[in-house]
Amino acid sequence: MNQSSQWPLEFINLETYPMLTLGSPQTQSVISQAQQQLKLSGAAEMPLFLNPLGIERLIQESLPLAEAAFWNALTGNAYLEEPDKNLPADHVRKIFEPTSLGAVGYDQFPVDNLLRKIYEWEPFMNFIQQILNLPKLYRYADPMGALNLSVMKENDYLRWHFDQTDFVTSLSVRNSEKGGEFEYAPRIRGPEKENYEKVQKVIKGESNEVVNIPNRPGTLLIFQGRYSLHRVTQIKGKTSRLMGLLGYAAEPNIMSTEYLRKIRYGRTAPLKEMK
Ligand SMILES: O=C(O)CCC(=O)C(=O)O
Ligand SMILES: [Fe+2]
Fold this sequence. Notes:
The chain has one domain (3-265): Jelly Rolls, CATH 2.60.120. The protein contains seven helices and 13 strands. It has 275 residues and is an alpha+beta fold. The longest helix has 17 residues, at 25-41. 36% of the residues are buried. 25% of the residues lie in helices and 22% in strands. It is globular. It has helices spanning 3-6, 25-41, 52-66, 114-120, 122-132, 196-203, 258-265, and strands at 43-46, 70-76, 97-104, 138-139, 147-152, 158-161, 168-174, 182-185, 211-213, 220-223, 229-232, 241-246, 248-249. A seven-stranded antiparallel β-sheet has the order 1-10-7-12-5-3-2. A four-stranded antiparallel β-sheet has the order 6-11-8-9, with helices on one face. Strands 4-13 form a two-stranded antiparallel sheet. Helix 2 (25-41) packs across helix 5 (122-132). The structure holds 2-oxoglutaric acid and fe (ii) ion. Residues 161, 163, 168, 225, 230 line the site of fe (ii) ion.
């Protein structure tokens, strides 16, 4: 391993997360705890994954980057697709909520950006792969979608939805003063059952199955969002919520559609200076 590929090390809390020794008993115990959490609730939370130096650097680098975010506001349902016209008007697939947030694409990250370094770092990907117990893991092949900085400013909101991917890996950069909480209903649907009634209750604020994960800077989160309905509550106050979203998948060549690029980054062509 050469010098430059080692440098995220000084920013990671290696005492708690000794990622370089995957076979050691301590690392195996961290990995099996995360696996337990995923099994129980679909979310593995690893607080203080970054050390104070790492958190500070992440914030300092993310603030100017956030200025370059593309903002979009739209409305949609929890299933991220147009509902069938023949469904009754009160069907949960016909509940539309607003979403507004900003996103910075992978091609906008400088090469020496810490979040990017961590994302591209083999030992980090191996660590995630072990937790997910997958034979292989790949970075998204999309030049914009692979790594994102999500930027949510005052009044922004990410509506209740299910992800169309099996899991999302995030690294929290900064919290808003109020709001900005990640709320979710663990495994509220399954591959064979939609549980529309329960889903509807969540969206209407009538469910007691909703839990939340506080947004603590430096926390690494692996979240399985295909079956767990989730949202980010409305941001209150002038401090924007910043979150790194790291795109890994069990299959190679994952690309975003042109439509997704357009609504998320406001463009379909990647920037020229991309590596
Ligand atoms: O910003 C977050 O914490 C979650 C984002 C999310 O749910 C998504 O990108 O699908
Ligand atoms: Fe999501």
